[in-house]
Amino acid sequence: MMPGDRFVGARFPLGRLVITATAATRLTGDEVADAIVRHARGDWGDLGPADAAENDPALREGLRLLSAYGRGERRFWIITEADRSVTTVLLPDDY
What Å distances lie between residue 16 and 22, 31, 66, 70, 72, CA to CA? Predict the structure, then answer.
């Protein structure tokens, strides 16, 4: 069983969950956990319309998935790789 399979309504497996050191110091565990559940369910968060629209075909075609959550200094991204082997929580500056 993959981590994404554990969430009710998960649309894809998350693979191994990782977080960058910067994101781990700036974000709370609760906000990261909530965002991971939203991401796994296909709620792409606060992406612009063009980026959000790219996730639907990416989900069907097995491509990389991106979500964005939070505001200002607490803005962060979640990226699941195309092969669904790893999902990374990171700050935009970490990219």
Answer: 18, 18, 16, 22, 27
Q: What is the pLDDT of residue 3?
A: 54
Domain that holds residue 65: 3-94
The tally of CA atoms less than 13 A away on the side-chain side of residue 49 is: 0
Looking at residue 1, its pLDDT comes to 47
Pairing of strands 16-19, 65-69: unpaired
Token pair 């612009």 in the structure block, residue:
48
Number of domains in the chain: 1
Amino acid (1-letter code) at residue 76: F
* Of 30, 39, 40, the residue nearest 2 (C-alpha): 40
Q: Are 24 and 95 in contact (CB under 8 A)?
A: no
**Residues of the chain below pLDDT 70:** 1-7
Residues 93 and 16: their CA atoms lie apart, in Å, by: 22
Give pLDDT, residue 55.
95
